[in-house]
């Protein structure tokens, strides 16, 4: 990096340089899909005091000027201009994604990772679950991936369900490009712990002293109907995610204990909001 890199400059000049980078990225790397046709929705009312100062269940009101921005169910943006987003269905499967993945990802022998361990994978997945999810895929009209000759795929065809359609678009809209919505809140707001809806948030709360539900053994409680651990998002679950979810739930509850000791007059809702 050069001597004029932002972190080498005096603070004010460094901040100005960072602001220039941010503006450049917004202009050339972030494209708003909100301008595409949309089903009309009612404007949200003015935020309550709680909505202004604490996390909301669905991520609304983070931006006072655009209260729906970043909340669950809103569209993903694009990283290329909208008029350049075109899907060539005739060429989409050539070369076959299966062939490409086999060529690039097949390992004939073990290649150790010498600079990190499996905790890195758990941490990355834990964070990604906070940022985005396309939700359930469409069951109809799946992609059919061509299989190379002598492929060991166990089925006659490889079918990949399509990403769920954007239900904020008018029913008969054929405008290109396609758009997609985020099932989670777009914000870095702990939605993997608290959920991205009022229902999900209620499911993880104990409603005592602002705390989240946790078992007597200090581990996440189990949903007796599904056998899954109770948390904001438990898709693609494995022991690494379980460990991090447990750690952060216990941290939330420990913060609640500290807040209650300092502010015994606070009720459950305020303790939860602040924690």
Please explain how this structure is put together:
With 275 residues, the protein is mainly α. The chain has helices at residues 11-29, 49-53, 97-105, 118-131, 191-194, 198-204, 239-262, 268-274, and strands at 143-145, 158-160. It has a two-stranded antiparallel sheet with strand order 1-2. The chain is globular and about 70 Å long. Helix 4 crosses helix 7. The chain is built from eight helices and two strands. The mean pLDDT is 93.
Question: What is the topological layout?
Answer:
Layout: H1 11-29, H2 49-53, H3 97-105, H4 118-131, E1 143-145, E2 158-160, H5 191-194, H6 198-204, H7 239-262, H8 268-274
Feature tags:
single chain; 8 helices; 32% helix
Quick summary:
The protein has 275 residues and is mainly α. It has helices spanning 11-29, 49-53, 97-105, 118-131, 191-194, 198-204, 239-262, 268-274; strands spanning 143-145, 158-160.
